[in-house]
Amino acid sequence: MSEQLGPRPAARQAGAGRAQRVTMADVAAKAGVSRTLVSLILRDQPGAGAATRDRVLRAADELGYRPDSAAQMLARGRSRTLGVMLDLDQPFHAEMVKAVYPIAERLGYDVLLSAVAPGRDERRALGALLGHRCEALVLLGSDADARLLASLAESAPTVVVGRKAGAPGVDSVRTAETKGVRQAVDHLVELGHRRIVHIDGGKGPGSSDRRSAYRAAMRRRGLAEEVRVIPGAHDEDAGIAAGTLLLGEESPPTAVLAANDRCALGLMHALRGGRVEVPGEVSVVGYDDSHLSHLSHINLTTVRQDTESIAEQAVRCAVERLEHAALPGRDVALDPKLIVRATTAPPRRNLLIEASTN
Amino acid sequence: MSEQLGPRPAARQAGAGRAQRVTMADVAAKAGVSRTLVSLILRDQPGAGAATRDRVLRAADELGYRPDSAAQMLARGRSRTLGVMLDLDQPFHAEMVKAVYPIAERLGYDVLLSAVAPGRDERRALGALLGHRCEALVLLGSDADARLLASLAESAPTVVVGRKAGAPGVDSVRTAETKGVRQAVDHLVELGHRRIVHIDGGKGPGSSDRRSAYRAAMRRRGLAEEVRVIPGAHDEDAGIAAGTLLLGEESPPTAVLAANDRCALGLMHALRGGRVEVPGEVSVVGYDDSHLSHLSHINLTTVRQDTESIAEQAVRCAVERLEHAALPGRDVALDPKLIVRATTAPPRRNLLIEASTN
DNA sequence: GTTCATGATGAGAACGGTCTCTCGCTCCAT
DNA sequence: ATGGAGCGAGAGACCGTTCTCATCATGAAC
Alpha carbon A263 to chain centroid distance? Predict the structure, then answer.
C-alpha cells in the first residue's frame, strides 16, 4: 500500500508527472472572474458582457480547457448522451453508427458505443451504457427478449433497430421488409424468373418478416407453387451451404434471394466455385447494400436499407421519448429500395443444369 | 426527503415519468446504514460486518442499484476507463476490440469506444474519449501525425496499434512485420516459387515496413532480381486492380503476397474471374487472418497477427504508463504466425499463361 | 434625488459517489 | 482497573460542473 501523508495520495500520484486536469476554476482565476460566469459563457448563454466573454474564452483556450463530462452529467442531471449497442462484425451496424453520429450531434447529443462480443453479452454491453449514464439506448440487431427490453425501458428510452420490439414502451425502427422483398421478387419476375428461392436468415432480426414477405410476394405473382425457403443465416457460411446444396440439384432455381449481403456473397462464391455463372445462370439478390456489395468485383443487386433515415428515425424516437416521457411504443417502418447491379439478369434456360453436371 | 418546493425543477422534469435513478443513499436508507458503508461494501473492501454486508447487498439488488460512473469518476479523480479509437470498417479493429474488452476488465478498467467516420475525424473521435475522461487512449490504425500524437500524450497515455508511433512518450504495439513477411516468403520459396510479387498497402499503417521486409526476405533467399512490388491498398479494390493487371501479363508471377486479407480477396476474385486457379496456378497469401479468411470457401493462407497478444500488450502499456507516469516510449513488436490454408501450393509451370490466353 | 428595472457578477447548494478521519466498542495484555 | 489495539460504523469534505438566487452597479423614470 502507499504511505499516507497527504489527502488521497493515491489519486494524486496516479496522474503524477502528467499535467493536472484544467478545471473551470483555473479558467476563472486566469480570467479574473467567478466559476459561475465561466460556466455561463462556455455554455453560450446570455448574461455576460462581450469583453468578459472574450477574455474568458481566450483564457479557456490558452489553458486547453476541456469540460469534464462526468461533472457535467452529475450537475445537470442529464448526460445528453445516447448509447448505441452494436455488433462489430456486422457491416450494417457500422453503417448505422456512421449515420447516427452526425444526427445525434445535430440534436446536441453525444454518442457512446458498446459492442457485444464473445464473453460480453447484450446485458453487459447495455449495463456499461447505462452505467455511463446514457439517457437513451439504441440497440442494433438485438436478440434481447421482451422481458429484458421491458426492464431496460424502465431505466431509459429504448429503440430497437431492425426488428419489431415486441415489448411495450419500446420503439422500433426497421425496414418495411414486405416492400423490399416484394421489389426484389418483382424485379426477378419481370426479368423472366419463376423459380426463385429464398435463403432465410434463421432467427436473426427481421428474417421471419422477410420470409413471410417472400411468400406473399410470390403468391401475388401467381408463383405460390414455386415458393421455397432454404434455412440459412446472416453470414457467408450459410450462403455457401445453400450454394452447395443447390449445385447438387437436378433442376435448381434460376434466382436466389439471400438473407443478406454476406449470405449472398457466400452463395455466389459457392456457385462460381461450381462453375455456375452469376448472373448468367443464376441471379442473386442480396439484402443490406453494405459496402461489400458496392465493390466492383461483386456488384451485387441488393435491397438497400435506408441507413440514413433509419438512423435519423431511431435517434428521433429516442430523443422524443426522452422529452415527452411516456409515449406509446412506436414502430416505424421505412421503405427500402432495390439497387439493381450486375448479379441479376434474365434466366438462360437449362444452362445451369448443364454446367452443374460438368 | 426532497418534497421541498423544487430546487432545479427543470432537471427533475426532464426525466419525468421515468423512475428516478436509484442512488447509494436509497440503498443506505433501505438497509439502515450510512452511505459510506454502502460504498465500502459495494466496492468489496474490508471493514464491514458480514451481516451488514449481506443486508446492504440485498437492498442494492432489490432496488436495482447501478453505480453512477460519472459520480465515481468525479469522486475518485480517476475514471478507470480506457478509450479505444477505431475504424468500424476494419475487421481487424473489430477483432482487437473483442480482445481488449476482457483484458481491460481483468485489470479493472472500463472501455469506451469511439469511431472515426466520415465527418468525424480522429481529432473529434479522440476529443470525445478525452471528454468522457478516458485515462488512456488506444488508437487502432491511426493516421495521426507526430504532432497530434505528442499533444495527445500530454493529456493521456497513448498507445498506437499497428504502426510505429514516431512521437516521444507514445507507445506502440505492432506486429514484427519482418518476421511475418519472411515466414510467408519462406513458405512460398519452399513450395518452389521464385516469382513472388508483393501488393503493398500504400500509405496504410505498417505497409512500408512490410514492403521493405518483403525485399529483405527475397534477397535473403537469393531472389533479389525477382523482387516486384505492385502499389496497392488495404481493400478489395486494390486486389482486383492488381489481379487485372497480372491477368494481362505474359509471364505473371506464380505467387502473390497481398497487403492484407481484403486485398487478397479482391485479388483472388479477379484471378478466378479470369479463370486462373488459386492455388493451382497462382498461390495467394494474405495478411491479418481476419474472420474473412477463416471462411470455408476462402480458406486463405495468411499471416496471423496475434490479436490477443497485441491487445494485451496495448492495454498493459497504457495501464503501466498510467501508473508509472513518464516511462520512455516503448515499441513492442510481436511475432506473427503464418497460417497455412488452402490458397498456397507448389507452382505448376506455364499453366497460368495458357489459362490467361484462353 | 430616490426608485426601479436591467444586466453583469458572485456565492453556495446540489449532483452521486469516494475517501480520510474520528468515534465507540470489545478484547486482551499489563 | 488502565491503556491501547482492532474493528465496525458514521461524519463530512471533496471532485468539477450547473443552477438558483442574491448582490451590485448603472442609468432611465418619476
Answer: 18
Q: What share of chain B is helix, strand, coil (3-state, %, to 5)?
A: 45, 15, 40
- Contact assignment for A297 to B119 by CB distance below 8 Å: no
All 3 cell numbers of residue A46?
446570455
The verdict on a CB contact (< 8 Å) between A69 and B66 is no
Q: List the B283-288 sheet strands across, edge first.
A: B229-230, B196-199, B255-257, B283-288, B301-304, B337-339
| Residue of B299 and B6 predicted with greater confidence | B299
Q: Superfamily for B9-67?
A: lambda repressor-like DNA-binding domains (1.10.260.40)
CA of A34 to C1' of D28 (A): 29
The answer to whether A68 CB is within 7 Å of strand D is yes
**What chain A residue is nearest to B135 in terms of C-alpha separation?**
A15
Q: Is the pLDDT of residue B346 over 90?
A: yes
Domain A19-67: CATH superfamily is: lambda repressor-like DNA-binding domains (1.10.260.40)
Q: Which residue reads 516503448 in cell numbers?
A: B330
CA gap B18, A353 in Å, rounded? 62
Tell me chain B's radius of gyration from C-alpha atoms.
27
Q: Nearest 5 degrees, angle CA A11-CA A12-CA A18?
A: 115
Per the CB < 8 A criterion, the answer to whether A244 and A270 are in contact is: yes
| Residue B225: DSSP 8-state | G
- Place A242 in a pLDDT band, splitting at 50, 70 and 90: very high
Residues B70, A132: C-beta atoms closer than 8 Å: yes
Burial of B158 (0-12, 13-18, 19+ CB in 10 A): buried
Q: Which CATH class is domain B79-174+307-334?
A: alpha beta
The mean pLDDT of B196-217, rounded to a whole number, is 92
Contact yes or no for B77 and A11 at CB 8 A: yes
C-alpha A353: how far from chain center = 40
* Protein residues with beta carbon less than 7 Å from any atom of strand C: A 4, 7-11, 32-37, 40, 46-49, 52, 71, 74-75, 77; B 2, 7, 21-25, 35-36, 39, 42-43, 65, 67-68, 71-72, 74-76
Asked if A292 and A261 touch (Cβ cutoff 8 Å), the reply is: yes
Confidence of residue A326 (pLDDT cuts 50, 70, 90): low
Tell whether the model's pLDDT for residue A45 goes beyond 90.
no
Domain A78-173+307-331 is in which class? alpha beta
- Could you tell me if A22 and A59 are in contact, meaning their C-beta atoms sit under 8 angstroms apart? no
Pairing of strands A337-339, A301-304: antiparallel
Torsions phi, psi for A192 (to 5 deg): 115, 5
pLDDT in tens, B212-225: 999 999 999 999 99
Which residues of A fall within a CB distance of 8 Å from B11?
76-78
Helices (H), A225-335: 236-247, 261-273, 291-294, 307-323
The answer to whether residues A304 and A145 touch, using CB atoms and an 8 Å cutoff, is: no
* Distance between CA atoms of residues B216 and B90, nearest Å: 28
